[in-house]
Design goal:
61 residues, 4 strands, alpha+beta, 44% strand
Length: 61
């Protein structure tokens, strides 16, 4: 399992969510990250999900 980082921002750049979660691979992380964003009502906010190696798995601006 790898640790992925999910971050959500307001339009002014304020960080409103900074969370980590475990996933087996990038595809699973993308699904989990999307679900977390939907649950918390942040799917339309600027967000990113980053793999432990540093590459983006999920991004919305």
């Amino acid at each position: 399992m790898k640790t992925y980082f999910l971050t959500v921002f307001e339009k002014d750049g304020t960080n409103v969510l900074d969370e980590t979660f475990q996933a087996e691979n990038d595809n699973q992380a993308k699904e989990i990250g999307s679900e977390k964003l939907e649950e918390k009502g942040f799917s339309e906010h600027t967000h990113r999900c980053v793999a432990p190696e540093g590459h983006l798995v999920l991004f919305h601006r």
